[in-house]
Amino acid sequence: MDEQTTKILDKIPFFRKQRKISKNTVRHQRRFLFPKANFGMVFLRKKASDSLNAKNPFKELIKRLPYFKRKITVQKKENVAKLSQDKVIHKQIYRSFIILTVLILMVSITASFSLYTSNGNLKKVEHLISHQVMTASQIQMETLQLHVIFQGYLTRNYSIGDVKKKLEEIHEGLTTLHNAIVTNDNNAESKEITEEIVRYEEVYARLEEYADKLPITYADTAQATKDTIVLLSLDRIEKMKESANLLKQYTLNYTTPIIHNIHDQNDLYARVSIIMTFAALIIALYFVYTITGNVKAFRNHIHQRTKELVSEADEMIRIASDVRHDAVISDQHLSELSRDIEVLVAGTDEIASAVEEVNRGINDVGLLNESLAQSTESTIVFVEKTQSDLTQFNEKLEDRLGNVQGIIEHLHGSLSEIMEASDNVVQLTDKINNINRILTDITSISKQTNLLALNASIEAARAGEYGRGFTVVAEEIRNLSNQSSQSALEIEKIIKDLIGQSSVTVKKLNQSTQIAVASVTETKQITAIFHEVSGIFRDIVKDINSIKELSDLVSENSAKTNHETDQIRTYSQSITERIQQFISSIQQFAGVVIEVTNTTKDSLEGVQHQFKLLETQKDNIENIYQTVKGL
């Protein structure tokens, strides 16, 4: 065996131990087996490199989406919190109702003070009437009765005891009137009444003195004495009548200004109460208008935020649709890859058949040395066919390797998009939670408003006629509070459902992320297997080239054909083992591709389920939008 043959055989791992083959035998065997040494691996590697460097439509899709160009700033994340800090509506409502309650209390206190003062003045008038006017009238009437009794005494119808009894009654009336006048006031009229009472008492004392001098019967005294006493008595009774008339007149003059003063005070208190009522009503209307404006502004803000949520939900639905479309494309690529692998396995079976045929040819060479040339040509044909098939298989393998790399890029893009969609859903959940907190504040405000309106109604009811206007305003405010509370409860219920569905969406997105990560790992394993298969192909190409060289040596050294045929048979068996190993690797690769296909299908189903959840969330957000719009 010469140096050239040794160098050729050293290149082949299987033939490194076989160093006794001669140069002619190797040349004959090289001509006999495979005429071409190029197995097409360079073309396949170039094909894979071109596929990896090609533009990824999924990446381009993500770059074109404006949603992924947008950056979520701290300002956008804190909009709802800032709204809840700026729009302190519940504090304004609380202060407004405190002021309304104070005004109602002031009106109630003023009305109560007016009624209390009027009642005091009326009691005072009643006291005057009962102790002064009635007493004066009683004195006047008793004076007339005294005059009648004294006339009856002269006609012997009454005794002097009746006269003295009536005088005692008049004295009691004078004492009562004098005490009432002195106790109540010290103005000019009361002084005149007191002076007149003193004069009346002087007349009464003289008349009582005369009455003591009168006999029990008219016939008990001389005529002159009786006439003098009777005339004097009648003169005193006339003076008593005049004094009684003056007492009544002075008493009326004394009580009339007091009654007018009472009426003036009542009118003043009524006017003040009416003015305060109108002032409180105007202030209440002002605060109601202010609160209504703030509530409208808050409603418009929620309206705008809900529009943004609906827009983001639509954008997320579009992204989910694109992800689903790309997942379908990835599934199609994997299906095509699986079919190509099946074709590659079939081609490998053909290679194994060709190798077996080569073995049969070698046996025929040993048995039929005379037809060596013809068998060698047939073998070369088989080797060329096998080399061509291997070249085609290698090209397909490199092409599918490029597809696998594309799938890896798609999966990476899908994983990034799913993670971004998960972050968007989390941000959406945070915004919904902020809205829920705001709705909780609205519910608390409605409860406080309802309670304050109830207190205002109670205070207005205590105020009577002066608080009737406040009763109507408080009732309207309480109705508005009940409507706001009911709407807030409905929105809170929808938001709870939306939060639950968002949690399910986040969970599904996390599961999809895990599946996508597993798909990426398994796809990397596929790439490693592809590289391993490529190495096997390179070894097979080297072996085939070596076999071709050996066939050439066999052609040149036909004399040593029998000896070299055994060696070629050994080499063919080694090639068969390598092909079997290659077939095993291809089958393993096919199993991994099938597993990746199933994983991609599961990911596609998860994406479809997330798409449905996003549509449900969009419907819920639109329901919230309609509810807020109806506030």
How large is the radius of gyration? 62 Å
Total DSSP helices: 14
Distance between the termini: 102 Å
Given the helix and strand composition, which structural class is it? mainly alpha
The assigned CATH architecture of the domain at 111-283 is: Up-down Bundle
Q: What does the overall shape look like? A: rod-shaped
Report strand %.
under 5%
Q: How does the major sheet shape up?
A: none
In the predicted model, the low-confidence regions spanning at least 5 consecutive residues are: 11-15, 17-87, 217-225
CATH topology-level name of the domain at 111-283? Four Helix Bundle (Hemerythrin (Met), subunit A)
Helical residue percent? over 70%
The oligomerization state is single chain
Explain what you see.
The chain is an all-alpha fold and 631 residues long. It has a domain at 111-283: Alpha-catenin/vinculin-like (Four Helix Bundle (Hemerythrin (Met), subunit A), Up-down Bundle), CATH 1.20.120.230. The chain is built from 14 helices and no strands. It has helices at 3-10, 23-32, 41-53, 57-64, 66-69, 74-77, 79-86, 89-154, 160-184, 188-213, 223-367, 372-463, 468-556, 561-629. α11 (223-367) runs parallel beside α13 (468-556) and α12 (372-463) runs antiparallel to α13 (468-556). The protein starts with a helix and ends with a helix.
